[in-house]
Amino acid sequence: METSKGSLNGRCLIKSERRRNRVDQYQPRVRGACKYTDRGSMYIIVALGLIVVHLMLLPIYVYLTWHHRYWRKRGLVTARPLTLLGTYPGLLTRQSNLVEDVQKVYDKYKGKHRAVGVFVTRQPQILVLDPELAHEVLVLNFRCYKDSLTSSYIRHAKWDKYARQNPFWASGQSWRSLRKDAQAGISGHRLKKAYAIWEEGGKMLTNYMTAQVTEHNNLLETRDLCFRYTAHVMADFIWGIDAGTLTRPQEDPNKVQQMASKWTSYAFYMISVFMASIVAPFIRCLLRLRFYPKETDEFFSKLTKESIEMRLSAGSDNSRTDYLSHLLQLREQKLATHDDLVGHALTVMLDGYDTTGTALLHALYYLAENPASQQKLRMEVLRNLDTDKSLSFEMLCALPYLDQVVYESLRLSSLVPQFTKVCTNATNIQINEFKILEVEAGMTIMIPNYQFHHDKKYFPDPEMFKPERFDDAAHLELIRKGVFLPFSDGPRNCMGIRLAMLTLKSALIHILSEFQVVRGKEKLIPNGDAGFGVVLQGNVNLEYRRFFK
């Protein structure tokens, strides 16, 4: 019995052991199944999370891309935009210049369409590709395109009292009255009477250069040179003062030049900020954005006040014709306020300081790179100099090759590379012989004059400096065709054309009659800046070799 019990117990132990082994054998499979179940749950959670995120982002995506069908529905070919960045991503990313972004669209569609639809961030805009259409917008149909893009910004710059007095930022009837008052002070007749300011300024420029080339072994940083000159003539013409930029070079920094540079660079930079913020214009008011810094407002307000007091204290003995005398007339005849007068003074400064100085810089650089053109211009100047080595106002305006050099330089540099107009009255554009596009009031239209200026269809060998292409006053016909637009065209063209041309030409004849301009060791190539242009960057070191007679 005991033996049987032992055998039975043994068999039971064996069976129990076998059952445990079977259970243990299946345990790993159960744990593995749990792992797979946990992983599957994780995937489901992630998938649900992605769905929720997509559902949250969908309204934002729809908001950012909803307008992308805008031009397609109206039958206009559309340059495909990026979701948030639009057609010109560089406005927000700062990785490319606006000229470069426009160039890509222009190269793709030019010759095929008169215009294409684009988007500035998410705002629809028309990009003109046909110069004839540009002429239509600027001149023939101006009544429907009276305002510029910058004039649409000023309503968000409520704290910019002096910018509001500048026709560059104005719209509607305000623009017309401001331009009329400001332009009367820089008419051709008034500039002729004030020509002695430029004659004297040119001689002071060459005296300054003579001293500097002796000290610096003929090498001069030309950007500083040009801005010293334009600061001098603008301060003399607008406020009747000697800024000291040519007579007191030891003053570093010169206050007038420092404030003028800060003022213009800030204004041009803020234009790009306002354009980039078009996707959320409320930001402009929220951040209290402005075009002119407060510091420069205070400086030029004080300068204008002191200049007027100084002129009035001189009494009837001072009959000088300049812009300050025009400001005094506005005060007496139209009861202009102090803010009005400061606004008008800064309007002329905007035309005559930075852009004109930059135009002079490029002209000198191109002449240094092209010695044959430089010598041809020098011979024309020397042939027409008076016995006292000066030129009359009439002769300055009548030198044909000087005109050609200036226009070719303006074409190559294209310092204002695009003009953007605002449709003020609903109108139509003939897209092709079968299609008419309805343009709504408020729509903006960009005219890419940089691209026109550098298109070989209109200017063979467009990157070459060839003043002869403007022989026989060819610029007049090219402007009429909408191909050449250095100062825009139509009623809202640059009101400071005469002022800029006088300043630019006067500097060139004085410099070239005394110096040979030679390129520096390194060849400079214009590059895109942080805003809208493609210009010479950094220091521009040129050699000035004085003629000894």
Description of the structure:
- This protein is of the alpha+beta class and 549 residues long.
- It has a single domain (151-546), classed as Cytochrome P450 (Cytochrome p450).
- It has helices spanning 2-65, 70-73, 90-93, 98-109, 131-140, 149-153, 172-183, 188-193, 195-215, 222-239, 255-276, 282-286, 294-314, 323-333, 338-352, 354-369, 371-384, 393-398, 400-413, 449-453, 474-480, 497-514; strands spanning 115-120, 123-128, 147-148, 219-221, 419-422, 427-430, 436-439, 444-447, 515-518, 527-528, 534-535, 541-546.
- The chain has a five-stranded mixed sheet with strand order 1-2-8-5-3. The protein has a three-stranded antiparallel sheet with strand order 4-12-9.
- A hairpin with a 5-residue loop joins strand 6 (427-430) and strand 7.
- It is globular, with a radius of gyration of 34 Å.
- Mean pLDDT is 87; it is low at 1-8 and 26-31.
Helix/strand layout:
Blueprint: H1 2-65, H2 70-73, H3 90-93, H4 98-109, E1 115-120, E2 123-128, H5 131-140, E3 147-148, H6 149-153, H7 172-183, H8 188-193, H9 195-215, E4 219-221, H10 222-239, H11 255-276, H12 282-286, H13 294-314, H14 323-333, H15 338-352, H16 354-369, H17 371-384, H18 393-398, H19 400-413, E5 419-422, E6 427-430, E7 436-439, E8 444-447, H20 449-453, H21 474-480, H22 497-514, E9 515-518, E10 527-528, E11 534-535, E12 541-546
Parallel strand pairs: 2-8
Antiparallel strand pairs: 1-2, 3-5, 4-12, 5-8, 6-7, 9-12, 10-11
